[in-house]
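Lab notebook, bench 4. The sequencing result for the construct came back, and we need a structural model before the next group meeting so we can plan mutations. Quick request posted to the team channel:

Model the 3D structure of this chain.
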Amino acid sequence: MGVSTLRANRRRSRTQSPFASPAGVLSICLQLRERCPEIIPRTDKQLYLMLESVRNIERRPASDTKRGRPSRWPREHLLEVAHQLRTILERETSGRISLQSFIAQHLRVLRFPSDVQTALTDGEINLQEAAQLARLTAERLGCPPAEARSRRAEVLRSHLAVQGSQNRLRNRVRELLGVETAQSINTMHMTSVIERVDELLEIDPSDARHMFWEEMKRLFYAMREIQPDDLDEQVLSDFMAAVDEVSNVLYRIEIRRRKREQHSQSLTI
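Done. Here's the predicted structure in token form:
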């Protein structure tokens, strides 16, 4: 038996966290409701929004109240929810899951497609793999929901059959979504980015759009420098939350570009 096979079997036989499932996440939310009945919103949707505010307010000092949109909930309520949630997580997970990690990573399980939730609950995939598979939505694939579900099932079957790694699954999802993988980013691509930034600055120095490519370039160079030892749970939690927001922005840009191309094609017909 090869080393790769041993690693795959060891990865698949590991114990799944009971809180990396819809039922586990909901049990935490239920306990939170019981502890803060006068504070927690009645609907689950509003609860999730409140917890996002809790995560954000935990990362900002009390004096920093002017950045971003004002919260719809009083600061003292958010801090009380944070205190109670941290107490619950400490008791239920012995400190293995932090408040930031629960909100940024575990809470999104409740928004995964039902078939992805089932695969996660059954232990076929872990939380990170489920997050990747959940990206294959009908909206992003540009197909009916039934077809999107079928594609997810096909990707999952293939992933389990070859005992694929998280990285391999991530690249497969990116391919299906039409996103370039990290391997396809080369010096030529970076050169074109730099030229585009320089061109914008020459045309209009006050044009803020150059900041988009500047930040993307910074991410590219960061990928080459950052080492696994530089990442801890808090950094990973913050990064994944930020990536979710960036992905949504990039998706809106892609939709806008497609509409513009479709409009141009209709004019030429």
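The longest helix spans residues 233-268.
Will bring this to the meeting.
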